[in-house]
Amino acid sequence: MLLERIYDEDLAQASYLIGCQATGQALVVDPRRDVQVYLDLAAHHGMEITAVTETHIHADFLSGTRELAAATGATAYVSGEGGADWQYGFEAERLRDGDTIMLGNITVTARHTPGHTPEHLSYLVTDGAFTDEPGYYLTGDFVFSGDVGRPDLLDEAAGFQDTRFAGAKQLFASLKAAFLTLPDHVQVFPGHGAGSACGKALGALPSTTVGYERKFAWWGKYLENDDEQGFIDELLEGQPDAHAYFARMKRQNKQGPALLGERPAPRAVTAEELAAGLAEGTLALVDTRPVDEVHRGTVPGALSIPSLGKAATHIAWAYDPEADDAGLVILAADAETATAYDDHFVRVGVDALVGFVPTLEGLPTVVPPVIPSAELDAFLADHQDAVLLDVRNRSEHTAGHVPGSRQLSAGKILFHPDDLPAPGTVPLVTYCQSGLRNSVAANALRRAGHQVVELDGSYAAWSAWAARQNALQHQS
Length: 476
Known about the structure:
Blueprint: E1 2-8, E2 13-20, E3 25-29, H1 36-44, E4 48-53, H2 65-72, E5 75-79, E6 93-95, E7 100-103, E8 106-112, E9 121-127, E10 136-140, E11 143-144, E12 147-148, H3 153-156, H4 163-178, E13 187-190, E14 208-209, H5 210-216, H6 220-224, H7 228-236, H8 245-255, E15 267-268, H9 271-280, E16 283-287, H10 291-295, E17 303-304, H11 311-318, E18 327-331, H12 335-346, E19 353-357, E20 370-371, H13 376-382, E21 387-390, H14 394-399, E22 406-407, E23 427-431, H15 436-447, E24 451-455, H16 458-475
Parallel strand pairs: 3-4, 4-5, 5-6, 10-13, 15-19, 16-17, 16-18, 18-19, 20-24, 21-22, 21-23, 23-24
Antiparallel strand pairs: 1-2, 2-3, 7-8, 8-9, 9-10, 11-12, 13-14
Helix pairs in contact: 4-7, 11-12, 11-15
């Protein structure tokens, strides 16, 4: 048996290829939408992808199940559990609790594990060449290394109300019935790692075991003592902010993401074409330089995506494909680099990349307003209607913030206009922890028409400055 983990550091998301080496058949679980990585991996091992499935209707990335099935002719499988409201809207075989997918000697058994979502499936894998007992468990967003999937995302991101409590109860029951009943040696392969917003305490380990989680996970003592309420209380306390684009992912994944098919390489765009598109509003530049370079000058209305490593996350914060029809032109050295960004973008349903420019030469530029910590108080005194905005997560704001600031995370800021003054009416002074997330948020807000001043160095710089000021006062 072959079991390969394919991990996307950007979205902290894991997919898996399971293959029977005797027959050359392979199954992919929870594929992302840029599917070439799975085709290459199967070819490397001399296997044919004959089946594709997913654990649930994802909220944090756009599923590649339809895409990979279309590219390979494989059979697509999705959950048939969860009731009428949780049925997929595209053609695929439905799996229910106990149903199996056969890959030569390998049996993959679906287990209904609701809690994170009502339709959620996990997959027990039995290598029939060695045993008739399962040895591996692909748990999706059910059980992570050190944590379990949060049951509040439907409330936080998808517009539901108070489903978190029923979900938490379901999760408790699923742990009892479909996890702790397994032998301790069963290896667990979760759908996410540290950094994912799908839980609050995810470990960075790529796998764990039933026995290890039973003994050491935070939730183990509650299950051992049959303390459902204690489990629910700790589970729901302190969950991180959910990104606003999660709601779109839920809708699109349930309906079935649009098929990409063969994707042409991004083309070179001339400065003249981009300048004309910027003036007409039909094109927008994605500035991929580091934050300090952007602060020295960028194209008016440019989006700031300072890192390829988080390009999917940040473009989903800064660009809403359901409300914005501008084509994107990326600042990239060549088509290969632009394609790498496009791969990240399509993972969150941003299919708008037109081409690339290698330089800003020949384009109009502006210098974004940035204010040092030492000048913040004077600026706010002169602009008493200004809004000081902390774009970090709730937990970061609670742990410490600039006095008088309002919290609205960068992952929500573009999608919550009612929580902000009308564009162009009052200045916004924005900050994050170090400045990177702030650059993404601030430039998205500028493109939406807001007057934005960035706090130079963000909270890290301000807190260091404030500490120096306090020390000077104590000395005097």
